[in-house]
Amino acid sequence: PSNFLEIDVGNPQTVGVGRGRFTTYEIRVKTNLPIFKLKESTVRRRYSDFEWLRNELERESKVVVPPLPGKALLRQLPFRGDDGIFDDSFIEERKQALEQFINKVAGHPLAQNERCLHMFLQDEVIDKNYTPSKIRHT
């Protein structure tokens, strides 16, 4: 069988209250690529985790990293007639945009060698103090 890497972003959950409120997304990975230690994994990530990944890849790799969906600053203004960034339609749009982003990034052969991508996709907790490095095929 040919190599595959499937990444789904789904099952958004909004947690917290007030200014500490945010939405996390479930990231499900299925792959048979030998460079990934887990063939199947599920983690939860929030938008700021995607920002972290993008910044790490821009800093550490030669990959041209696609832009993330915008920060939606207008949606955070008070007195809107909806839930702003917690509105279901916005969360759905963002979920799809994040899925496109992570699939573009993870599909890049150079990005697949970056430790930050592996942590983002497969580690329960992202160690933001990690030492950037390349993953070696074992």
From TrEMBL:
<keyword id="KW-0597">Phosphoprotein</keyword>
<dbReference type="GO" id="GO:0051246">
    <property type="term" value="P:regulation of protein metabolic process"/>
</dbReference>
<feature type="domain" description="PX">
    <location>
        <begin position="3"/>
        <end position="127"/>
    </location>
</feature>
<dbReference type="InterPro" id="IPR051074">
    <property type="entry name" value="Sorting_Nexin"/>
</dbReference>
<dbReference type="GO" id="GO:0034499">
    <property type="term" value="P:late endosome to Golgi transport"/>
</dbReference>
<dbReference type="GO" id="GO:0030904">
    <property type="term" value="C:retromer complex"/>
</dbReference>
<dbReference type="InterPro" id="IPR001683">
    <property type="entry name" value="PX_dom"/>
</dbReference>
<dbReference type="GO" id="GO:0032266">
    <property type="term" value="F:phosphatidylinositol-3-phosphate binding"/>
</dbReference>
<dbReference type="GO" id="GO:0032456">
    <property type="term" value="P:endocytic recycling"/>
</dbReference>
<keyword id="KW-0653">Protein transport</keyword>
<keyword id="KW-0813">Transport</keyword>
<dbReference type="GO" id="GO:0051223">
    <property type="term" value="P:regulation of protein transport"/>
</dbReference>
<keyword id="KW-0446">Lipid-binding</keyword>
<dbReference type="GO" id="GO:0015031">
    <property type="term" value="P:protein transport"/>
</dbReference>
<comment type="similarity">
    <text>Belongs to the sorting nexin family.</text>
</comment>
<dbReference type="Pfam" id="PF00787">
    <property type="entry name" value="PX"/>
</dbReference>
<dbReference type="GO" id="GO:0031901">
    <property type="term" value="C:early endosome membrane"/>
</dbReference>
<keyword id="KW-0007">Acetylation</keyword>
<dbReference type="InterPro" id="IPR036871">
    <property type="entry name" value="PX_dom_sf"/>
</dbReference>
<protein>
    <submittedName>
        <fullName>SNX3 protein</fullName>
    </submittedName>
</protein>
